[in-house]
Amino acid sequence: MIRLEGVSKTYRTQAGLHTVLRNLNLEIPAGAGLGVLGRNGAGKTTLINIIGGAETVDQGRLVTDAHISWPVGLAGGFQPSLTARENVKFVARLYAEKEEIPMILNRVRDFADIGEYFDMPTRTYSSGMNSRVSFGLSMAFDFDYYLIDEVTAVGDPQFRNKCDIALMEKKAKGAGFIVVSHDMDIVRRFCTQVVVLSSQGLRHFDDIEEAIKVYQNNG
């Protein structure tokens, strides 16, 4: 379970204080899929970052006992002078037992399918290769919730299909998803409820199609 109680977040800008989230209350049950819709600047990524622990709240609190992923497919955390193998090993030391690390390395290497580049510095990678490794790394761990922020599977149709299958397998195991996407097909596949963020606050919907209609009409 993830619960946000009276959460507010404000940033300092050159124009003054800008409140992105104001007194937000939300509960995400175990195994649920939550879609987060809203126009640019509505606070979608801020919400994801708060849930994932990348940002703190100014007011209110986040309550959870769940293991929550980093945003799936995010490659920004890789150390560019290290190889994919070395980057994966570093992350695995944080999230897994020592004896599990070889298995995780094999999982990520096989999933990414970048051949000998797996043992070359990630600074030599294309953005697509970075995303392949990052997506594979996200799938190598069993989290209670997976954060999906505007992710679109990279590569050819075969690899995109591999990504879809991996996510569906996590869903079948009971994992929850928190999805930020402009792709309504992704929202339909992985979400059981939707919130629409706007300058007026948050609206919660159990009816996915109703939420999509409201978002597309006025956000």
Describe it.
The chain is of the alpha/beta class. The protein has 2 domains: 2-67 and 179-218, 3-Layer(aba) Sandwich (Rossmann fold), CATH 3.40.50.300; 78-142, no CATH class. The protein has 7 helices and 9 strands. The chain has helices at residues 44-52, 84-95, 101-112, 127-139, 157-172, 184-190, 208-218; strands at 2-13, 16-28, 33-38, 59-64, 68-71, 145-149, 176-180, 193-198, 201-205. The strands form 2 sheets. Strands 5-6-7-3-8-9 form a 6-stranded mixed beta sheet, sandwiched between helices. A 3-stranded antiparallel beta sheet has the order 2-1-4, with helices on one face. Strand 8 (193-198) and strand 9 (201-205) form a beta hairpin. Helix 2 crosses helix 3 (101-112) and helix 3 (101-112) packs across helix 4 (127-139). The two termini are 27 Å apart. The model has no long low-confidence stretch (mean pLDDT 92).
Proportion of residues in extended strands? 25-35%
Calculate the terminal CA-CA distance, rounded to whole Å.
27 Å
Can you write the helix and strand succession as a string?
A: EEEHEEHHHEHEHEEH
Strand order of the largest sheet: 5-6-7-3-8-9
Secondary-structure class = alpha/beta
What is the 3D form? Answer: globular
Round the mean pLDDT to the nearest integer and report it. Answer: 92
Helix content: 25-40%
What are the segments in which pLDDT stays under 50 over at least 5 consecutive residues? none
CATH homologous superfamily identity of the largest domain: P-loop containing nucleotide triphosphate hydrolases
Structure annotation, total helices: 7
How many structurally independent domains? 2
CATH class of the largest domain: Alpha Beta
Task: Tell me the CATH architecture of the largest domain.
Answer: 3-Layer(aba) Sandwich
Got a strand count?
9
Main sheet makeup: 6 strands, mixed
| CATH topology name of the largest domain | Rossmann fold
Radius of gyration, taken over Cα atoms and rounded to an integer in Å: 18 Å
What is the multimeric organization of the chains shown? single chain
